[in-house]
Putative amino acid ABC transporter ATP-binding protein
Amino acid sequence: MIKIENVRKSFGELEVLKGINLDVEQGEVLSIIGGSGSGKSTLLYCINAIENIQGGKIFVDGIDVHNKATNKDQLRQKLGMVFQQWNSFPHLTVLENVALAPQIVKKMSKEEAIEIAQKELKHVGLGDKFDMYPTKMSGGQQQRLAIARALAMRPDYMLFDEVTSALDPELVGEVLDTLRILREEGMTMICVTHEIAFAREVSDQVAFFHKGVIEEMGPPEQVISNPQKETTQAFLSKVL
Ligand code: ADP
Ligand code: MG
């Protein structure tokens, strides 16, 4: 599981995370919602040690992420991350894009990596696009490629940072469908998202971030359908 205890994070004078507490159990989906600049992306970067923290602790499967002795590369193999926009390697085919990291990072043989890449591309509905070049793909296909690339590393957790925010509206659904499949399969996920209806549908927990604190957290029936705090109500009235 992922355990976040009183995490504080600053950029210089600016305190961006002001004591975040969160637990994500195996197989759970946590959605993080909240306004721009509230610290959502920063928290994801702290979880996989792209950013350091100034206080508190983060544990992934009991491993203290920010302990100096922790092997960060090993830790990151547990955590797949997909961003709003992902730049694939334009000179490699879709299949080569997905098969690359398993060979380099996991030292897999080319055959083994290709096999996994094919499987994961089918998984995200790109089974007929192996030989295409990413630049020829739609935004929705590119995001599914990004998801396949993360899955090919066989992570235990997936972190999604607004993976549909840059997409044309008609392409959002196919990416959300892919996330639904992962959820059904029991993948543990943290999704930063502006898709409130999606968050309501798939989440076990929803955390509403506001200025670096969790203002409200709980099941979606509570946080989204029956928010208690004025800040949550104001945010939802803008985005729903
Ligand atoms: P969100 O994802 O909720 O929109 P972020 O986590 O990206 O918010 O950012 C939270 C705050 O931290 C913002 O005020 C942002 O400008 C600031 N910030 C993010 N990354 C950096 C950085 N590398 N250096 C300085 N400030 C940053
Ligand atoms: Mg962000």
